[in-house]
Amino acid sequence: MGRLRAAIVGATGMAGQQFVQALTRHPDFEVVTMVTSRTVKNYKEALLEANGSSRWTQSTPVPEDMSDVPVISSKEFDPKSVDVIFTAIESDLAKELEPWFAATTPTFSTASAFRYYDDTPLLITGVNDEHAKLVIRQQRERGWKGFVLPVPNCTVTGLAITLKPLHQHFGVNNVLMVSMQSVSGAGRSPGVRTLDVLDNIIPYIPNEEGKVRKELLKILGECSNDAISPAEININCLCTRANVLDGHTESVFVGLRKRPDLSEIKKVLQDYNPFHGRRLHSAPDRMIHVFDDPYRPQPRLDRDLGDGMTTSIGRLEDEPVLGGVKYVLVSHNTKMGAGKGAVLLAESMLEQGLLG
Ligand SMILES: NC(=O)c1ccc[n+]([C@@H]2O[C@H](COP(=O)([O-])OP(=O)(O)OC[C@H]3O[C@@H](n4cnc5c(N)ncnc54)[C@H](OP(=O)(O)O)[C@@H]3O)[C@@H](O)[C@H]2O)c1
């Protein structure tokens, strides 16, 4: 079978550029169209600002195979012209456009528009793949040939990945988390003002904590009879913005139902390798890397582990207050937590025979 024809909607934005990087020379998907608010000749031209500067903000150049991809406005786009759509647009626009896309074509989204519907799973590849079958209910009830699969909020991604093996082996009952989130997570619009974040920590991110609480319980919940029952875990969190470009750092305190030795906990985290035996182009060799060095993980040093798809853990210690374990994690918010995570999800759906 040849590669599936793909479109990237919102390709010029921050998350869209991550899709562009994740889909370059991809073995399963070929980007044949990009969609923005206006029609221009190609992607190279779409990135050009009126003053001659480029909107491309990545540290590597625009991939060669992407520069000449034609760009059309969403008004002219025909979702039926492609096999799969990757969207990176604001949530209000996603609410309007994604149902139209999904009527004919599977759609993978970085927006939050669909995350909380009962018929929509919130998938992290390797964490809750068994929830994927819920898209069949979404298709049936909405009369769609395609579906909308949103990826979770980037702050919950590393948390869910690290809690999954702990929950599976020992049962998690309580979680407290404090995040120090990178500025790229806020995107460009509205973004974070330089004057606010330089030499600073901002102790509040609007709406973030509610998303983390709700999404974690959905991701770690049980899926049966076409519905997800949220995990029975007490969780609270406090989300802050730090002066870091990419990579969310989180301090996590976990209460466990069973009380294993720290060495058992470490082994369970290190051995967690849900990609073993699967052929997923964007999957890292290791889902989790555990550092013994107490000065790691650090966002600048460790966010790119596994090309931004491995979650790093350090400071693994007993947690006597909640009765369990505490640790620090670093997760790449725009890679595993957004565009590349969504591409990995599309690869996984293809492998499971749920795409195309
Ligand atoms: N930033 C991140 O790291 C991150 C992480 C996870 C999730 N997300 C989510 O991803 C989504 C996009 O965020 P972002 O930060 O990438 O935003 P952004 O930088 O503002 O980009 C928005 C994109 O939407 C396009 N667009 C605007 N109006 C459009 C229309 N009518 N039709 C088609 N495309 C249109 C823009 O294209 P033109 O301006 O060229 O027309 C641009 O490509 C949001 O829902 C956000 O919550 C972002």
Describe it for me?
This protein folds into two domains: 4-151 and 339-351, Rossmann fold (3-Layer(aba) Sandwich); 154-331, Dihydrodipicolinate Reductase, domain 2 (2-Layer Sandwich). The chain has eleven helices and 15 strands. The protein has helices spanning 14-23, 43-46, 64-67, 91-102, 134-142, 154-170, 194-197, 208-219, 262-271, 299-302, 339-351; strands at residues 4-9, 29-36, 71-73, 84-87, 107-109, 148-150, 172-181, 201-202, 222-224, 227-229, 234-242, 248-256, 288-290, 311-319, 324-331. Helix 1 crosses helix 11 and helix 6 packs parallel to helix 8 (208-219). The protein has 356 residues and is an alpha/beta fold. The strands form three sheets. Strands 8-11-7-12-15-14-13 form a seven-stranded mixed beta sheet, covered by helices on one side. A six-stranded parallel beta sheet has the order 3-2-1-4-5-6, with helices on both faces. It binds NADP nicotinamide-adenine-dinucleotide phosphate. NADP nicotinamide-adenine-dinucleotide phosphate is lined by residues 9-16, 35-38, 46, 74, 88-91, 93, 110-111, 154, 184-185, 187-189, 333-334, 338. NADP nicotinamide-adenine-dinucleotide phosphate (NAP) binds next to helix 1, strand 2 and helix 4.
